[in-house]
Amino acid sequence: MAKNQVAVKEESFELVTNEIPDFLKQGNRGAENVGTDDMIIPRIELIQALSPVRKKSDPAYIEGAEEGMLYNNVTRTLYGTEVTVVPVYYTKQFLVWKDRKAGGGGSNGFRGAFASKELADRAIAELAEEALEVSDTAQHFVLVRNGEDWQDHGVTPARERD
Question: What are phi and psi of 17, to 5 degrees?
Fold first, then answer.
């Protein structure tokens, strides 16, 4: 009696490669003049008592936003009080803020993000404003699971900045 034999074709392929795809070899076609000031990194922010997204008279108001909820600052999506994330990348930045009591707070107070405390201190000296301070801030870039969807987001801060 003859036995049935199964032929198995083995294929191998690379999951990771160091080669640059052709479409990326041609540079920043279509985005030649785009700089970091032109882009906004989405962040998951905690809605607090003084958050503009809670004030109906503020242009940043989001319907249904309540203290303790999380939201995406770019898409303005409300997540509720919990969100599932997968860490992708971490970096530390040194943010320069104007003190809230001196007219800062929120986007009014933000003066810049720097790679080191020395660069942030130098920026403070160049700005020559009063009541500026440096806050070292952990930046966690994550994938967010919202229902069945996964989305790219930057999350900050790892600890309070004010």
Answer: -140, 155
Q: Cβ distance 161 to 111 under 8 Å?
A: no
Residue 53 gets which letter from DSSP? G
User: For residues 148 and 151, what is the distance between their CA atoms, to the nearest angstrom?
Assistant: 10
Cis peptide bond upstream of 157, omega within 30 = yes
pTM, entire model: 0.56
Q: What are phi and psi of 113, to 5 degrees?
A: -120, 135
Which residues contact residue 75 at a Cβ distance below 8 angstroms, ignoring those fewer than 6 apart? Answer: 42
Going residue by residue through the chain, which has 162 residues, state the pLDDT in tens, using 9 for 90 and above: 556 776 666 666 656 667 776 766 666 667 777 776 677 778 899 999 989 999 999 999 999 999 999 999 888 999 999 888 889 999 899 988 888 777 776 666 788 889 999 999 998 888 888 888 898 988 888 888 766 655 555 554 444 433
Query: CB neighbours of 146 closer than 8 A, spacing ≥ 6?
Result: 77, 79, 83
Which pair of tokens denotes residue 74? 């770019």
Rg of the chain on CA atoms, in Å:
23
Q: Can you point out the beta strands (E) in 26-160?
A: 43-46, 70-72, 78-80, 84-98, 110-114, 132-146, 149-155
